[in-house]
Amino acid sequence: MTRTARALVAIAVVGLGAACSSGEADPSTGTYTVQFPSTAAAVATDFVQILAFEVKSPDERAGLCQELITARLTTPGSLTPSVPAAPAANICEMRAGRKPVTVPYGEHALLAIAQRKDRQDQLRDFMIGCAIMTLGDGDAPLPIPVRLVSVNAPVPTTTCGSVGEYCDGRCQ
């Protein structure tokens, strides 16, 4: 039996609800976890960008994530998130819960794009994943598993046993 190590990095999603009365509802916080296939994949990531897309109908739900991933990989400029994108966060900022993503209440696809710098110091998509989340009061954490964009960009090795060790500067 084999065991796959997964690095989990959690971050907050702030949901904004529409008011039903004269005042506005207070924002509530939900969470999602970007699930990397390994600690090495997590620490090799320079930045993670989360883009939110409204799920407009139940029929759209089944294929939306695959459509978003395909669009990002083939024509990245064609994607228009339904809410403004939050600033990209490095893995340690995500772990600390900085730079939350603000998303209105309702059903949304969250597209996670992990990027790393290439030899020319240009950011390139490294890993990608997507999950559907319904935001409302009392949401459960949502996992977003990410996978390699290309097998030609392998995950470098690391001496880190955890993302925490990496963020604390105890390994490379």
Can you describe this structure?
The chain is of the alpha/beta class and 172 residues long. The chain has one domain (7-151). It contains 4 helices and 8 strands; from the N terminus they run ββαβααβββββα.
Distance between the termini: 29 Å
Q: What percentage of residues falls in helices of 4 or more residues?
A: 10-25%
For the report, how would you describe the main beta sheet?
4 strands, mixed
Lateral arrangement of strands in the main beta sheet: 4-1-2-7
The SSE string, one letter per element, is: EEHEHHEEEEEH
| Global morphology | globular
Q: Count of helical segments?
A: 4
Q: Count the E strands.
A: 8
Class by SSE composition: alpha/beta
Radius of gyration: 17 Å
Strand content: 35-45%
- Tell me the domain tally: 1
The parts where pLDDT drops under 50 for at least 5 residues are 1-6, 10-24
What is the mean pLDDT? 82
List the helices and strands and how they pair.
Layout: E1 7-16, E2 28-36, H1 39-44, E3 47-54, H2 58-74, H3 91-95, E4 101-104, E5 106-117, E6 123-135, E7 142-145, E8 147-148, H4 163-167
Parallel strand pairs: 1-4, 2-7
Antiparallel strand pairs: 1-2, 3-5, 5-6, 6-8
